[in-house]
Amino acid sequence: MPRISIPKVVGFKKEAETIIKQLIYGSKEREVVLIIGMGGLGKTTLAKKVYEEKNVANHFDKRAWCIVSQEYDCKNLLNKIYNDVCGDKTEIDNVAEELRKSLMGRRYLIVLDDIWSEEAWEELNRVFPSCDNGSRIVLTSRQESVVSDAKHICRLPFFTIDESLKLLHVKLFKGKGCPEGLENVGRKISKKCGGLPLTIGLIAGVLEKVEKCEQMWHEFLLTLNSHVAFGDGIQSNDAIELSYKYLSDHLKPCLLYCIPKG
What we know:
alpha/beta, 11% strand, elongated
């Protein structure tokens, strides 16, 4: 068995290796792999990590990536998949039939990212042929109930403190190393993020606006500790609120355009 190389992404090394082996060395049947976890835990990151791995890309004849989301248009999604598979940018009326024809006899990998309901999966699933050639479909979802025929299920864990700190360093210092004196306070800040990669990323975005010195980071940590909503761990909405607080005054009105009407 050839060595599997994993792209340099913080966390999920064990999970990525397991899924890659399932994609490449599984049975000849068309198999479904389900990645589940709460929002912000890194499902899409793990799916991309696997999808872009060189051995995976070389193993499949055709690949396609599609974001489903809670509200979706099946025809538009199938057109997106068809474009990825065929390298064609046109929209066709009978896309389901044409997509099925283009996948027939080919070993394909389809990623359906952020799928919310069993109905959405059933509607999309009927298009993908079972050719007994090792084709695979990867789904990411917050709910295990969206699919009943998953051959493999990957339940994402929360980040450890070490992984949280590493991600914080990657976001802030781009692999150049943490400045002296910030390691300990950075670890305390990372611990406050509760092992959720989304929250770590949001906090890193705020820390980019804070002077990189021990005193300023300690003051930032005190801000986290004094925020009543944080409790033992920062929630993503709290981190967004904090991001707004540290946003430049001339940029704050821009967020008004992001507020949905109604």
